[in-house]
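Risk register update: the risk that structure generation would not scale has been downgraded. Supporting records follow, first protein first.
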Amino acid sequence: QGDSMDQDVESPVAIHQPKLPKQARDDLPRHISRDRTKRKIQRYVRKDGKCNVHHGNVRETYRYLTDIFTTLVDLKWRFNLLIFVMVYTVTWLFFGMIWWLIAYIRGDMDHIEDPSWTPCVTNLNGFVSAFLFSIETETTIGYGYRVITDKCPEGIILLLIQSVLGSIVNAFMVGCMFVKISQPKKRAETLVFSTHAVISMRDGKLCLMFRVGDLRNSHIVEASIRAKLIKSKQTSEGEFIPLNQTDINVGYYTGDDRLFLVSPLIISHEINQQSPFWEISKAQLPKEELEIVVILEGMVEATGMTCQARSSYITSEILWGYRFTPVLTLEDGFYEVDYNSFHETYETSTPSLSAKELAELASRAELPLSWSVSSKLNQHAELETEEEEKNLEEQTERNGDVANLENESKV
């Protein structure tokens, strides 16, 4: 009872809205809940790219059977191999049982030693031999010891049925295994993302950046990158939208999202008025409950199949005021990539204000957007030196005037 009372205190919204989904109750905004204690951010996509979503209470399970091929391909390897063995074994046993029934009904079992009797299948003297003949027929092994005779029309019809169904089973099961083996999921293991994302100035603008790379020499063809911001929100009408997805522009309009991924590349998102990070400052960033999901897509050069690699960054993995360490160096006749420094960053001078505040300061002071504290101090120093020079000039002019007056008085 104590635990249930604590749970009621921690999520009082569940009392007023019991029909809300569990995920919506967990992700309600802080101002709705009375308890404002920090909680661990639950990932939507894990660092290895797997989606952290489980489908529950699926009642229409028959829909999985309507696409049985995809269902089998999506199964784990141990279940896939088990089904593979079971399908062949069941078909061999099923047709072996029918071959044995035909021989039993015809009376072939009672005339095994009778040379004048023409059986349906020669040398079929029991269920085991019927099972072996079923395997030989479906797999087209044909050892030649057991042979169907022309005096058994029902056996001929069964032979045709088993041959056709056996070809269908072979095509289906071998196709499943081939597709599962050739899936490009493992290719995504060699597409790497930096462990952290960084925010710093680039070309006078505040940018969010992360790095991607390909460890293989066979490249990803037609590679493209996109990013999504996953953050719960509440509309002005009071509707709560859990895990709302917002596009993050990484060069869609300029073509920078289409990559030539031969060496590691730094993907940059300019924080402007259309950016969801427009009003987020360095102090506010750790308080935000958000997740950035990055998706890299392309075709595998060796197989031509589409490959997708995913990763994500939560607020604790976004470093403000850092840049990535360069990894590309020019050697004798080639470029070398040092993947030991792929995830390394270094600190750089970056304003702690949000992009919106920087734009307002720039518009007020008519300064470039790359305004920083050091540049501001330098401008103050320049103004002070100019004032000192003016004061010196004025003093020299005054001294000159006094000297002239003294000379005139002497004369």
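Supporting record for the second protein:
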Amino acid sequence: MGFFDDLKQKIVASSAGEYDVPMVSSKLDEIVKSSSSGVVMMTFQSCPYCVKAREVLDSNSIPYTDIVLEDLDSGALKGPLRAELGKRFKQTSVPAIFLKEEFIGGANNGGKGGLIPLLASGEFQKML
């Protein structure tokens, strides 16, 4: 991980403020486990990459669960979940896409390569 990735994680963690780490970590576990039978993604409502991921999944007729972070606990978990996401998966940005309890990445990169590149290569379809 590079200097800027480390810096971004520190900024996200700092902006999350103090929070109940075990509770938020457990919530992240719950989200990851909910992907055991399909696609689950953590998003922001109007994030352009999140919108693109939704469009790509919809256009490929791939069902998914969209967990909009602003809607969880009136948005109170948005920062803490991103901080925990960074600790665990080294990515704080959204969308954060999971399939069968594996971190796929975002729309374009991260994790196993990102939704769009994995779809283009046919790898995502094999994972389904």
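The helical segments are 3-16, 21-33, 48-59, 78-89, 115-121, 123-127. On this basis the risk owner (M.S.) recommends closing the item.
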